[in-house]
Amino acid sequence: MQIIIQSGDNVHPRFKITNKQIVTTNNAITHDTGDVTFTLIVVGIDSSTLDPQKTGSMAIIINIDPVNVPMPSFQDLSYSISVSTE
Question: Which of 6, 29, 2, 30 is nearest to 18 (CA)?
């Protein structure tokens, strides 16, 4: 059986299929640039000699969460400032 990513990761491929698993490549997935959701169309093709070969496809949605973004911390509970209107 052959499994391929048919579409959804075309511009700078970030995913590939290795040993029937979807894994990331060395191309960066950057949450800051809006690359947060990928919809991959994955196709399976049987390895028989039948004509036509049997195929199946499915959509896989991958959401990227910003897990390495540090949460802001504040020393005081409240702050006040004044702004001059002159």
Answer: 2
